[in-house]
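Quality-control log, excerpt.
Job 1 of 2 completed; input and output follow.
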Amino acid sequence: MDVLQLLFAAGTLQLAVATATPIALGAFAGLFSERSGVVNIAIEGMMLTAAMSASFAAAYTGSLYLGILAALLSGALMAALHAVLSIRFSMNQIISGTVINFLALGLTGHLYQTYLVPPYWPGSAGTFQTISIPFLSRIPYIGQIFFQQGPIVIIMLVLAFVIHYIIFFTPWGLRTRAVGEHPEAADSVGINVYLMRYANVILGGTLAGLAGAWLTLEWIDNFTINMTTGRGFIALAALIFGRWTPFGALGAALLFGLANALQIRLQIGFPEVPAELFQMLPYVLTIIVAALARPVPPAAVGQPYEKE
């Protein structure tokens, strides 16, 4: 009973929404990429690079907003590299994503040791503070959970609706889905398959960049080596479980966020239990979701397109 009360406490669910943010944003990044036909397992590397860039830029300029800009640009840059390797050079997209993940891990580790530790570290610029949406934050129970959050969390929730509209109700979304399902047919009616894939992969990279910014500008106030700890891969699992839809991905991300929030609360509530047992919860859930999911991916995802 104590665990159930802890699970449905407003504070636990508020934390769940917050910790679901990088997973949801990472899933949105994968959605744009994979809906256009490019497998993206490089979300982890994009997110990690952006987290480091955000911390670096914010610390050295003193501006959290410039930190966000640096995160968006670095996420887009890593995505552009993935796009060039996958689209221009027809490299196996799984291998391309893996290379980028290792590149990000090595690059951020080197820059961290060089510029983000004493005596070079200029000090943290802090984090964004929680904001309360007028009127909505006063709704009992729901208000605290969804409308008393950091700005990036609130942006993530809004983006779910925006991306749903873009993907399913705009010409851009129609073209994106067309090049991901049947690029030859899309090309035959004048859609530039290469342009759409490049644009969507890079757009996804900016969303992964925003996920990285959450880690160092809203969750904690500095960067640590490999601080994404698999969130990019969990985001990919959320995307698959959510059937490549924004609301499905958001729902799956919230489920993972709840598991993460619960393990944090359980560590506090049951200090006599080894913390490692609770910390496994999100990863065990990832395995279960991956095993149970039976989604149908976009038909042409992972297949390089060669114009005849």
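Job 2 of 2 completed; input and output follow.
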Amino acid sequence: MVWIHGGANLSLAGGWEPVYEGRPMVARGVVLVVLEYRLGVFGFMAHPGLTAESPHHSSGNYGLLDQIAGLQWVRDNIRAFGGDPGNVTVFGQSAGSWDIMALMTSPLARGLFQKAILQSGVPPPSVTRTLADSEKAGEAMAARAHAPSTDTMKFLRSLTAEQVIAAAEGLNLFTQDGWILPEPPSAAWMRRQELPVPIIIGGNASEFPAQGTLPELRQAMASWFGELAPDAWRLYGIAGEQEPPVDPVYGDVRDQWGSDLNFRIPGILHGEWHQAAGNRVWQYEFDRAIAPHPRVQHSSELAYVFGNFLRRGGMVSGEFDAADRHLSDVMLGYWTNFAKHGDPNGAGLPAWPEFEPVGRGFMRFTQAARAVADARQRGDFVPLFRRCLEKSGDLHR
């Protein structure tokens, strides 16, 4: 099992974060590799000078190249650690899930893994720039660093890491370079051209909220849904002037709209597309809040996936009890069963239904710390988003 951490491709690390400590997972009979990769300006900056140096006429995507190099290392060396290079599962969360979904569209990653687990992260079209646009962003960074127009790369390489970072802004996006990424990952997934491997895909009931007043939320939905906006206002409970009640699982309307738009429903739809291409898919939703927080948050599931419960410190901590540890045992069982056999189900675990488009079955990890098979995740919201995409004919919106 190869872990790719999140952090918007700008921050955090695998070995530094205590929630990723691997002993509970390794105890389930898997070999765990936690990858590090270059981030921000060091991992994703493109520039004409860098492109000119490349035999592939490419720049940017260095963080993805690091991940590919890590997977090649696993292929070449993991037998010495008791692993099987023909049975590799990549799993990641947030930007780590973005990166895996990108790797699933890269010719350079073919054959390096056989399964994928995608937690709380689907790369939207806006996360990928053309090479020309990425190079312009790199040139802007060089200008902020006061680099000369000649020997620009030599000058930038003479700076300290701190000086480079201080000049960097927003250099965390993928580049459609024609070598690592022949097209935006979102476009490849929409055309069913991603790697044909089994996946688990899902997210948390609440990830990140949207911002704004009720009129601003209505306008945002009108911009996204067009003539279908009244249906969206009705489902979200904002057709009138009153603030709708807070849902005990999904939070208030801002929690719901932000999480639906940027995390949950893109994940559900990508799972649908992957299954329609003939691949096996299991979907999930994680609802368990970590006390003292009233609702689940982005990254909450990591404590359960890795089996590490921190009272303080780290990116996931709080007040855990025996119910949390039981839920973690169940999730560790599912995740490692999938890694071993390509199916999360196994002895002693509640049956997790494989996704199919009629019942839309999924596993709900509930607020009460139970694993419960469910159907039609997010109910009528998913068909509404799907109708909007089909009606517009623009799957890149």
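Post-run check on job 2. The two ends are 34 Å apart (CA to CA).
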